Amino acid sequence: MGSLRVLIVDDEEVILRVMAASLRLEGCEVFSAHSATEARQILMSQTLSAVITDYRMPGESGRALLGFIRRSFPEVPTIVLTGVDDSELARDLIREGADDFLAKPFRRGELIRVLGQVLARRERDAAWAQGWQDGVLSETINALAAAVEAKDPYTANHSARVACFARELGGDAGLTAAELTILDHAARVHDLGKIGVPEATLNKKGALTHEDWEAIKRHPTLSAEIVGRVGLLHQVARVVRHHHERMDGHGYPVGLQGEAIPLMSRILAIADAYDALTSDRAYRRSFDARSALAILESDAGKQFDPTLVQQFVHRVRLKLSDEAGND
Ligand SMILES: [Fe+2]
């Protein structure tokens, strides 16, 4: 139980001392308070792992303190100390948000066992909540990607391929697993804003007018605005917003330059461009893989991050020579 920071609250000095000694034996850092008022002050100034509080105290009761913790520090688990015959009260306290209770007098082993159980339960709940949240976010991304698909099947397949390239390059660039998930989500919905661009403009075979360009240049902002409506996807929205910025500052929508462009947006830009170059478009035939890599290299430092281009080209060339070797 080392590294735990536990606040104990009791008006009886001797109980505080016994509890503190037991917890310190387990390696906990202990904060002692003689009243709920003192406990509130410690809660406001310290990051705590758990609170163990007496129920009956002069002044503010343990129940009121429990209510304060539930409202202001819901992440901190609370154990309430009750009298022996207070089982009814104990049930009420659990209903009001206490994680557990301990009837006085208790043995040292009991205190440690209950605290251990409470912390383990909180950890399991947090893991479950995280899993649930991740699931909901993935489903949200799937729903938004389906909106892209409904508008334009090319964009849908393109986004899936871009996600694949982006994850590979992101791995080479040293992104963490959590960052790779954000990047993957961003790649799947980066062109979502194209649902706001007229189809005639998107599929135009001839030269684009100034108005056409202005409409197309709005799509990253629109993608980010739609994705950003889901608060938990704000990082994805940021990556999406800047996927058409250029290293030389001549990109859009903001004209960010160099490393001011988020790293994941720089990765997405390369994956996006490579897939676009190797796909047939309304206005041109596709390039073969080697020509597409040469185009990326010639634009390194101007449009694309040169280090990332190098990593990407290296990876794709290896893949191409493996394929050639297998033929
Ligand atoms: Fe785009």
Task: Give a description of the structure.
The protein has 327 residues and is α/β, with parallel strands linked by helices. It folds into two domains: 5-125, Rossmann fold; 152-326, Hypothetical protein af1432 (Orthogonal Bundle), CATH 1.10.3210. Helix content is 60%, strand content 7%. The protein contains 14 helices and five strands. A five-stranded parallel beta sheet has the order 2-1-3-4-5, with helices on both faces. Helix 4 links the parallel strand 4 and strand 5 (100-103). Helix 5 crosses helix 6, helix 7 packs across helix 11 (234-241) and helix 10 (219-228) packs antiparallel against helix 11 (234-241). The chain is elongated. The mean pLDDT is 91. Residues 190-191, 219, 243-244 line the site of fe (ii) ion.
CATH 2nd-level architecture of the largest domain: Orthogonal Bundle
> And the CATH topology of the largest domain?
Hypothetical protein af1432
Mean pLDDT: 91
* Intertermini distance: 59 Å
Structural classification: alpha/beta
- Proportion of helical residues: 55-70%
Number of discrete helical segments: 14
Q: Could you tell me the strand content as a percent range?
A: 5-15%
Q: Choose one word for the global shape.
A: elongated
Work out the number of β strands: 5
CA-based gyration radius: 29 Å
* N-to-C SSE string, H for helix and E for strand: EHEHEHEHEHHHHHHHHHH
CATH superfamily of the largest domain: Hypothetical protein af1432
Uncertain runs are: none
Please report the first level of CATH classification, the CATH class of the largest domain. Mainly Alpha
Describe the sheet with the most strands. 5 strands, parallel
